[in-house]
């Protein structure tokens, strides 16, 4: 199906540029560290970068050894 984190079906992978969205990524990292909330809902209109944020955070989690699973939809 090709829904994995680095599936060839999804190339080029959507990613945040290194110096962008740091505040939001920091908030998500804080959510990851806080075990009291089990769900984070990332939402917004089409084209605002939800997939890029999710991809970048999943890659960051993989680097830290925190990634349990990742699943992406692609048109």
Automatic annotation (TrEMBL):
| Keywords annotated in UniProt | Repeat
Q: Which residues form the Nephrocystin 3-like N-terminal domain?
A: 29-74
- Top-rank taxon, per record: Eukaryota
Matching InterPro entries: NPHP3-like_N, P-loop_NTPase
Renumbered to this chain, the signal peptide range is none
Identification of the protein by name: Nephrocystin 3-like N-terminal domain-containing protein
């Amino acid at each position: 199906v090709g829904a994995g984190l680095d599936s060839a079906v999804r190339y080029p992978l959507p990613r945040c540029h290194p110096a962008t969205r740091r505040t939001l990524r920091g908030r998500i990292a804080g959510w990851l560290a806080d075990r009291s909330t089990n769900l984070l809902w990332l939402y917004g209109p089409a084209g605002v970068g939800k997939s890029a944020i999710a991809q970048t955070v999943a890659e960051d989690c993989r680097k830290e050894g925190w990634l349990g699973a990742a699943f992406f939809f692609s048109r």
